[in-house]
């Protein structure tokens, strides 16, 4: 049986399932950034490969699940920032329109 996770916030519910794989312990969202790697940095905390055992397979599946959750939450944060930016721009434009109509 594979692990699953469910994210719930307000009116949003998102379920995560790692799927059949293949799964590895080398997660795409859990390694050091490309900027650090390109600057010559090394990932000293890189996990060892999963063994082909029930526990090793679970460990690799959990890494996939963690990647899915990280990608989802990152996209939500980006969307929220974009909405906040749009709200600020709208507010600035609306306040500017009120000032213009007050002066007429």
From TrEMBL:
UniProt feature, compositional bias: Acidic residues: 95-104
UniProt superkingdom: Eukaryota
GO biological process, alphabetically ordered: tRNA processing
Record GO cellular component, one term: chromosome, telomeric region
Segments for region (Disordered): 1-30, 79-104
Entry keyword set: Activator, Chromosome, Nucleus, Telomere, Transcription, Transcription regulation, tRNA processing
Biased composition (Basic and acidic residues): 79-94
Complex formation: Component of the EKC/KEOPS complex composed of at least BUD32, CGI121, GON7, KAE1 and PCC1; the whole complex dimerizes.
Chain intervals with Polar residues compositional bias: 1-16
Protein name: EKC/KEOPS complex subunit GON7
Major site of localization recorded for this protein: nucleus
UniProt-annotated location(s): Chromosome, Telomere; Nucleus
Function of the molecule: Component of the EKC/KEOPS complex that is required for the formation of a threonylcarbamoyl group on adenosine at position 37 (t(6)A37) in tRNAs that read codons beginning with adenine. The complex is probably involved in the transfer of the threonylcarbamoyl moiety of threonylcarbamoyl-AMP (TC-AMP) to the N6 group of A37. GON7 likely plays a supporting role to the catalytic subunit KAE1 in the complex. The EKC/KEOPS complex also promotes both telomere uncapping and telomere elongation. The complex is required for efficient recruitment of transcriptional coactivators.
The family this protein is said to belong to: Belongs to the GON7 family.
One Pfam entry name: Gon7
Organism: Candida parapsilosis (Yeast)
